[in-house]
């Protein structure tokens, strides 16, 4: 029997060089009624699939993430976006588990999205790309898992938009996973969350260089996308973390003449993050993916959240953070309450942190211990 191997060129006790792989599927039926054909999926794997294929873990990335979740990218030398959680001896221990991460549908890092070439026209889809949903993203992930020959995942884990995908997996494919880790997430966006995303979308579409989405091969809508990222990044931090990192510090020394630009350190930081984002993300992908997040409602079609989660058969570990005001704790508690009302196996923990929504990415000590223990217990049961 041939087992899928990790996309690992070299591995030591602390790091690994990884290469992104790709697979093409003939078609994917979308919720909007369109059949997308063909569909490419970029993904990475870490560790090795065991003989009975019982140690596979799928990692679902957040809005601006991609398939490169861990290790050092062979292509550009970047570390993975969750490198502090995935690897030898880490929460998702690649010496025990076969870890998979793919770029979502609608993305711009190897998976089919608005910047991909439409085979019918020979030009990028741009805004002719069909509307997508979180469930479409998960349906494509299921195709990938089937392609890898994995009948049942040990776990699906992810934070933020990744957590939405985790919840969708548990409800749509209840027999296909043993454990679910929805972290810093929600079962549906609030009006405030939708409002922040809409400001970002309007910033992009107001940029003259957006050209109705047809900017490929020309000048990018860099100003609009940069502002959208600046707005979004503010929501990822907390008041306390911004106070500690920037306060009201000036860029110029006290007593020097003031200029309108770059007066405060925080202004300079946001501009830097905005310009950095433009170099690696597609503006149209921003529009499509944020809209998919806003549309997502796990209860849709089931009547209530509890009725939706009644379909789930896996164990849950739900994690939230005290200072996360983008996906506040009450939204995680709604998920936990719905699961408990249907007598589902769920553990919940609110972790103390000053880092806001970004805590699940940057402050992973307690989170890693919780995940490690819960995952190990699940694996023992499966084994």
Quick summary of this structure?
It is built from eleven helices and 17 strands. The protein is of the alpha/beta class.
Kindly describe this structure.
With 383 residues, the protein is of the alpha/beta class. It folds into two domains: 8-189 and 297-382, Rossmann fold (3-Layer(aba) Sandwich), CATH 3.40.50; 193-290, Orthogonal Bundle (Rna Polymerase Sigma Factor, Chain: A), CATH 1.10.1740.110. It has eleven helices and 17 strands. The chain has helices at residues 134-147, 161-172, 191-205, 222-236, 239-245, 265-278, 283-295, 305-309, 329-341, 359-362, 365-382; strands spanning 8-11, 16-18, 21-25, 28-29, 35-36, 39-46, 56-59, 72-73, 86-87, 92-93, 98-102, 117-118, 123-124, 153-159, 177-183, 315-321, 346-351. The chain has an eight-stranded mixed β-sheet with strand order 3-6-11-7-14-15-16-17, with helices on both faces. Strands 1-2-8 form a three-stranded mixed β-sheet, with no helix packed on it. Strands 4-5 form a two-stranded antiparallel ribbon. α1 (134-147) crosses α2 and α3 runs antiparallel to α7 (283-295). The longest helix is centred in the C-terminal third of the chain and has 18 residues, at 365-382. The radius of gyration is 21 Å and the shape is globular.
